[in-house]
Amino acid sequence: MASSCSCNTVNFKAASFHPNKPLAPTPSHLLPTSKPSQLASISLRLNQNPLQTTHFRKSKAVPGFQVVASGQKGEPLRVMISGAPASGKGTQCELITKKYNLVHIAAGDLLRAEVAAGTENGKRAKEFMEMGKLVPNEIVVMMVKERLAQQDSQENGWLLDGYPRSESQATALKKFGFVPDIFILLEVPEEILVERVVGRRLDPVTGKIYHLTYSPPETEEIAARLTQRFDDTEEKVKLRLLTHNSNVESVLSLYEDQIVKVDGTLPKEEVFSEIDSVLTELLTKKGAAVGSLAA
Ligand code: AP5
């Protein structure tokens, strides 16, 4: 079962990863600086398939540091994040974008925006979302492709959340030339997912994701304005899980060389620390991240 987890640590599935090697010393370009004005975009020069030629180690992230700039203009970082409903994709994307300045493109968010705008596509999409099914490709494929093709995604790099979810979506992306450098898979067992969905709340003002138990709102004012997604019921998440389980293997098989599995049952900060390590290693190995900033 794709959404179950048998480990407590990052599982580096890609053959070129070496989790047991000693930690690399902190490169000088990741040392702190007090010059936020150095901010630019993260850029990274990559081979066609960097994970086949690059060796990664599991190392501790550098807490309190933000890799934010590149002095070399190169090909920017391209990240996919996947996992079952409520595995923590959106939560991790908040943390990743904050540090790495990638453009976060969430298929579910794009669709909910269409629903909220009351467009024809939105009305049709909602029928499928209500049933926990995949929204048809004729609605979702071009929507995501167009967002990926925009200038900010091309310049800063992208973080694609919840897409592709089927073999046909993955094949279409490849055909359009969108290939990730890394494919992060969050693993969380199903019994935990249901509890996460039912307790999830969203702040419509900041877009921040909360959980009534695991990540409660900071103030009474925020608590009072929280909303719940229309598909966040136990009944609907079970349907979403069925859809996920019937598609996930075919998608994973297309990204075998880029997959990094992460234990999504850990506290969100620890999950991020694992992801951060991998992304930092990726940047460090390529030697393209030349700026940094103390958080
Ligand atoms: P989408 O919006 O993508 O929903 P999903 O995949 O079901 O994922 P979620 O957003 O529910 O969860 P998440 O993994 O982001 O978890 P989160 O971080 O919020 O898709 C919705 C629908 O749109 C689909 O059903 C489909 O109909 C359609 N759709 C989307 N993409 C499509 C595509 N490609 N093709 C066709 N149709 C598509 O976390 C969940 C909760 O857990 C939160 O409360 C959070 O605070 C908490 N939490 C997170 N991490 C932790 C942690 N480590 N420990 C404890 N609690 C945690």
Automatic annotation (TrEMBL):
InterPro entries in alphabetical order: Adenyl_kin_sub, Adenylat/UMP-CMP_kin, Adenylat_kinase_CS, P-loop_NTPase
Q: What is the protein named?
A: adenylate kinase
Q: What is its EC number?
A: 2.7.4.3
Q: Carries keyword Transferase? A: yes
Its quaternary structure? Monomer.
Which Gene3D superfamilies does this UniProt record tie to the protein?
A: P-loop containing nucleotide triphosphate hydrolases
Which UniProt keywords are listed?
ATP-binding, Chloroplast, Kinase, Nucleotide-binding, Plastid, Transferase
Query: What is catalysed by this protein?
Result: AMP + ATP = 2 ADP
Q: Which GO terms describe its cellular component?
A: chloroplast
The similarity comment for this entry is: Belongs to the adenylate kinase family.
As for subcellular location, the record says: Plastid, Chloroplast
Q: Which GO terms describe its molecular function?
A: AMP kinase activity; ATP binding
